[in-house]
Amino acid sequence: MKKKPERKYRISLALMFSGMVLAILLLTSVIVAVVVFYLVYQGTLKIGDNELNFGSFILVMTLLSLGTGFVIYGSTSRFSLIPINRILNAINKVASGDYSARLTFKTPFAKIPTINELTNSFNAMAYQLEANKVVHTDFINNFSHEFKTPIVSIAGFARLLRREDLPKDKRDEYLQIIEEESTRLAQMATNVLNLTKVENQTILSDVTEYNLSEQIRHCFLMLESKWTKKNLEPSLLFDEYKIQANEELLKQVFINLIDNAIKFAYENTVIEVSINKNAKGLEVTVSNDGDTIPKESMDRIFDRFYQSDASHSTEGNGVGLAVAKKIIDLHKGTIEVKSENNHTVFTVFLPG
Description:
There is one protein chain. The protein is α+β, with helices and mostly antiparallel strands. It has three domains: 11-128, no CATH class; 135-199, Signal transduction histidine kinase, dimerisation/phosphotransfer (DHp) domain (Helix Hairpins, Orthogonal Bundle), CATH 1.10.287; 208-351, Heat Shock Protein 90 (2-Layer Sandwich), CATH 3.30.565. The chain has helices at residues 11-42, 51-80, 82-95, 113-161, 168-199, 212-222, 224-229, 247-264, 295-298, 320-330, and strands spanning 208-211, 233-237, 242-245, 270-277, 281-289, 334-340, 343-351. A five-stranded mixed beta sheet has the order 2-4-5-7-6. A two-stranded antiparallel sheet has the order 1-3. Helix 1 crosses helix 2 (51-80), helix 4 runs antiparallel to helix 5 (168-199) and helix 6 packs across helix 8. The longest helix is centred in the middle third of the chain and has 49 residues, at 113-161. The two termini are 23 Å apart.
């Protein structure tokens, strides 16, 4: 979200409150003047040149002004404090954890620019807090489930390994499962650490020139055991391209994208990666044939800890794509996804 510049003064707000005070003063003066004129006209109040009559006049004027001012203030204060009361009530709701609170004002307050700015800023804040609460809840539900599953699996197979009569082939199978689940736990922890690291990073550092094509080929080699297990065919359709970027961070991006493409691809299909260059930069696409991503998930697929598969039947914790999005943002690039007719394409654009 683009940060708005700070404003030192709110002229319209100052004019509103000053105008209210001025209106009360003017109304008080008019009422007192009318009352005094009426008393003089009826002869009840006589203004003479002696000190007693002049003092009486000042006293009467003072009492009339104070009385009239208090009456007018008491009558109008409730109306003038409507926006402040409404704002305080909304703030109290948010402070108590009710992030669904929203500010709304009707005419004449809705026509005041500062009130509109306050309303929009408060509602944007409440919306973001509500969204963060949803993310936090998703994290507790999804992430705890993802951590619990491999831990339970490791504990169960470790207990089986204690059996003395266990055949060697079974022992080897259980050890392999424990190793795979341990690796899975380590990868989840690494993804969370990577997300924390890049989210706290605002400036891209360690920028070097390197061979992007070679990096992507290396990522495929690192994941060879996964794509060979599903009998997938890599199709690397690109020449040699160099780029100036943070090599280690972009490695995380392409490992995540290729790993996802492998994870959700149908068996015996093709994983395709292409690189195209234009005047503005490089465009990398990673595509696979697999189940179409639901439309309701497309807008949230890059959110932290979000999983389109609510059943948790597939591996993952919804962190990898969030990490990729943040890294690409640091590189001033874009990452998009298109999924239709059982074909999904992730497109990464890197300027330069």
